[in-house]
Amino acid sequence: MGNCALPQHRSYRNTTRMQPAPHAAGHSLPSGGVRGPGYGGRMNGSKAPIGPDVPGALLPLLGTDEEVVAFFAAIADLDATDPADHVQEDDIRLASGMRLEQFARAGSGDAFCFVGEGGEERPVVYVSLDGEAGPLALGLPDLVRLCLVAPWWRDARRRTAEELQAVADEYRESWPDLDQRRDRAAQALGLDPAGLPSEATVLARLVELSRGPVATACLVVGCEGDPLDPLFDVAPDHL
Fold first, then answer.
1. pLDDT digits 0-9 by tens, 54-95
2. How far apart are CA 187 and CA 181, in angstroms?
3. What pLDDT, on a 0 to 100 scale, did the predictor assign at position 234?
4. More confident residue, 78 or 18
5. I need a surface site. Which of 45, 70, 91, 155 has the fewest CB within 10 A?
6. d(CA 62, CA 189)
7. How confident is the model at residue 163 (pLDDT cuts 50, 70, 90)?
8. Sign for the pseudo-dihedral over CA of 31, 37, 43, 48
9. Is residue 136 within a helix (H) or strand (E), and if so which, with residue range?
10. Residue 121 Cα distances to 1, 32, 191, angstroms
11. Domain residue ranges in the chain
């Protein structure tokens, strides 16, 4: 990335915010969630149904609902409680010129960002202060499911399939009540915990996004135009 440095983390409550760029004509992205068996998540009829019929319903809950915040901010390290508490930076952007809009942060200062114009159906990229970036989901509903099922997804990076179970087991040792907290958060979001996808499904989806056209469309560059390193290894046997 040349002499360009990523914005430095100032505190847990301060992370970088990516400067919005004008929407670039001629660029399009896949939208909507992952389809197929085991990925949709059944509705439980609670107060906050998740899906295209309730646009904009998820992000407010990620920032205000007690059970949701208890899981996502503390366990999944996705904090959307104060989206205004970000620092504007100009040197991190999308190569395509499309808008990059931060909506949540990690404790390290890393950023969760929407790509392009629209609502919660937009693709989500993760931008690390370590100089890595990549797509996580095709929409906030898919990101929610990823975090509910595999909140340890960051620790799965650059590991073989054989190592992933050990990562998950270690995470559960750190959070003995993980399943109970996950279920309460899912229900608060209108999801039936029994209908969530498997760990294998969400991790396979991360690999697919990292190697496909979405990764190209969501390429993040620094101030000198050099691409950030990919978030996940693209080798066949690694994330």
1. 668 899 999 999 999 999 999 999 999 987 765 546 688 999
2. 10
3. 58
4. 78
5. 45
6. 9
7. confident
8. negative
9. strand 132-137
10. 31, 5, 17
11. 15-220
